[in-house]
Design a protein that fits this description.
Elements (H helix, E strand, L loop, with lengths): L2 H9 L7 H16 L3 H19 L6 H19 L3 H20 L10 H20 L10 H15 L4 H4 L7 H18 L2 H22 L4 H14 L6 H13 L23 H9 L53
Length: about 350
């Protein structure tokens, strides 16, 4: 059935639908996202959004809100492998509707006016603009990421010539334009978030700045270093060990940290022999590894009088922050899904 006809049916007032039914549909779609098939979840979520909006509105108390959380996350992950300008704009409009509602609501410390939720939603909007272009670029210099994205789009069009994503509708925004917007979202989110969540936002901001610096052939080292320093101080390494390794890599390359003689101490989890079966499986399940850092100590650089200059080693880089979930409370994708 064409999408337009399906939408016409679900928005019809005579179409029987309860909030519980919408929640059930969204829960099923979230399972698809967690299983690593976000593209398959998009059609059901599209219908859930349309049906909920005409019946219960788009405020945080509506079933639409949870559907919107999951829709933006499913769209973000789907766009990494399936460039689709229409899906991007729909997801962007959905996130903007949420952001506008949260900004308009009074700050009561919880619910619609909670700055924490606004920060999470801004973070999700930023990732929506960054992930499609940088989500599969691990192991590359930032300047090479747009070429990978363009090649991925050409390959998808050649394999799926009848896909409506490229036979009609708007194009995806240019990489620089999208990532510049992501920087704005991350900067605003960082001003509202705190603790570990602020660390995740700042980590993503450092990556977006690196992307722009590489594509524009300009230095953003000061901004990247500032974001990475602040993120390193608040990111919980047990909740996001790969994020910590990413930050260690950035700080080392910018001359902020030394390298020790072994990997122990770089991660909060014990290391395993590289030939172990479990370690190999984990590497296959994640994105491609970046090139190892050189095992050569460098002179420590002062952090403005801070005496805590950890000595670390970072033999590779984890997945980029854009490959992770925005982490909104009701929309959490498992590691296998990202």
């Amino acid at each position: 059935m064409p999408e337009a006809e399906a939408i016409r049916q679900v928005v019809d007032p005579d179409f029987a639908l309860s909030p519980e039914a919408v929640v059930s549909v969204v829960a099923g779609a979230l399972r698809l996202v967690r299983s690593g098939t976000p593209h398959a979840a998009v059609p059901a979520l599209t219908l859930a959004l349309e049906a909920a909006a005409v019946r219960w509105g788009t405020d945080p108390a509506s079933p639409w809100w949870w559907a919107a959380d999951v829709y933006v996350e499913a769209a973000r992950l789907s766009l990494v492998g399936h460039p689709d300008g229409l899906l991007f704009r729909r997801a962007h409009d959905t996130a903007r509707t949420q952001i506008d509602a949260l900004r308009a609501a009074p700050d009561t410390g919880s619910g619609a006016g909670d700055t924490t939720e606004l920060a999470e939603t801004l973070f999700a909007a930023g990732l929506l603009h960054l992930s499609p272009y940088a989500g599969q670029s691990a192991g590359l210099e930032p300047a090479g990421a747009p070429a990978v994205w363009e090649e991925r789009g050409r390959r998808h069009r050649s394999l799926h010539p009848d896909d409506p994503a490229h036979t009609s509708g708007p194009d995806m925004p240019a990489p620089e334009e999208a990532v510049e917007a992501a920087v704005g979202y991350f900067e605003e989110a960082a001003g509202l978030a705190s603790g570990h969540e602020r660390g995740r936002v700042l980590k993503a901001l450092a990556e977006a700045l690196s992307f722009l610096a590489g594509t524009r052939r300009e230095s953003r080292d000061r901004e990247i270093l500032r974001a990475a320093r602040e993120a390193f101080d608040v990111l919980d390494p047990r909740r996001d060990p790969l994020g910590r390794l990413y930050l260690l890599r950035v700080l080392h390359r910018l001359g902020e940290l030394d390298l020790p003689g072994e990997l122990r101490g770089c991660s909060p989890y014990p290391s395993r022999p590289s030939g172990s079966r479990r370690g190999s499986t984990r590497r296959r399940a994640s994105s491609p590894r970046r090139s190892p850092l050189p095992w050569r100590p460098i002179a420590p650089i002062s952090r403005g009088g801070c005496s805590r200059r950890p000595t670390v080693i970072c033999p590779g880089s984890p997945r980029t922050p854009s490959a992770g979930c925005a982490g909104r409370a009701r929309c959490t994708a498992s590691p296998a899904a990202v």
